[in-house]
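Re: uridine-5'-monophosphate structure - here you go.
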Amino acid sequence: MDGIGADTRAALFEKGNGAIGGQRSCIWSSPEGGCDIVIGKQIFCNRSLNMKSIVAVGFDMDYTLAQYKPETFESLAYEGTVRKLVYDLGYPAELLEWSFDWSYMVRGLVLDKKRGNILKMDRHKYVKVAYHGFRELSKEDKVATYGNTLLRDSFDEPDYALIDTLFSLAEAYLFAQLVDFKDKNPGKVPEDADYSHMYKDVRAAVDLCHRDGTLKQMVAKDPKRYINEDTSIVPMLKMLRESGRATFLVTNSLWDYTNIVMNFLCGLKPSDGCSSSFDWLQYFDVVITGSAKPGFFHDEIRANLFEVEPESGMLINTDNGTPMAQVGSTSLRLPLKSLREGCRIFQGGNVGHLHKLLSIESSSQVLYVGDHIYGDILRSKKVLGWRTMLVVPELEREVELLWQLKDTRKQLQLLRIQRDHIEDEIHHLKWSLKSGETDDASKEKMFSELDKLQSQGEEVRLSHQQAQRECHQKFHKVWGQLMKTGYQNSRFAHQVERFACLYTSQVTNLSLYSPDKYYRPSEDFMPHEFDILSI
Ligand code: U5P
């Protein structure tokens, strides 16, 4: 690992490279001969990225640098939302008795707002798993509702909602509960509240919890309860800066909250009596709060840029009637007494402002790390041409399980091949019998062969189904594997593949690799090709 100090490296490896569950079962050896990396912490590459051409690395904060604990944080969002539904929007008080299973919903699901259904689909938008509230739809109902290919390209707003951030897990669960509740107690939900209306209420109430202090005040009081501590964030930021890259933060959170969360992540807790410490700013060149992503990524959108005075949180208008006159020029630094090591803090603005602040010449020199396909990754890559890395915390467990279940998965593939083979033989035999060119003795033999094949086929089909169900449930009891739907990539996986140049389970995995690494994707394979290494 070139370019990293020994202390930084030690701190990174202590956390990052420990075996999971005490088993060093799936260690990946770097082809560069550098180090072994636990498979759950690897950075996976969809599109070549040479870190040498990256001059600035940017980070989203919430659910990227700050990993919230869903069991406490999303529960808080859930409880706050229920209270708003009951006290502000007229939903019955019995909702207050409900409880939240934070592990039930997963990212990548799609809510059918009108029908009250929750769907998991593959990359062709074929709906493979469908629930109405918490009741699984029968295959017939599923096909009748979603089987029409013409319908398939319309799984989008406004009739559908995508559960594509971890922030959405609570609202998806509450939506399912409300659908069940309305079906069983039609008179108890507010008049005119159809499923879509209920979804709208839930969405608005969740959003309000994020904006009115319901959540943030609680997190500020006790960050440790809601956010995972991560001692490898500072070494990672140091490593990037030591390697000569500029670092920046672009978050939709406002300054006061950003400061609390970043203090916590960088090891400065309010209990140390330094709630207003700004030491963490030394790890960044620019911090943009209240960025209003994804709009931030469009530089044609005029958004005022304000500089933030860190101590008071006051905003200073940098526009002064001549937008960007000061921002673009290094000689015109604002005379802020609290400026730390050149790090400047802003609110609002757009990507054009950021590029000028960092003297970015080409957008392909920027790597941005985020957790939200739509909010962080899709727009920044598609609109702007930034290089992107998606943080998918679910991946760590998923790849561990893929490894653990390798024998079962192999078995599944074999059963699938066997099933296809038997089906082909059956068709062949049936066809020969139909053609009528065989004598009676041969026909009799063929009939008995057909019987044998049909019962064998049924046996294989059942074994395959059973193994598939077991495998599915090991990943998630209801929705199965995040990145797969049956044998196809899930819709979520398809989006990861299309929009994220890199993806990994945790942002700090960046520091397990050289900051100058050339990330290269594995070879693409079409069904007619074969992996040369597997023969
Ligand atoms: N947030 C909302 N409404 C939501 C979900 C999240 O306002 O429905 C807020 C979070 O509370 C956080 C910000 O302040 O958006 C996420 O910012 P980022 O760091 O991911 O950009």
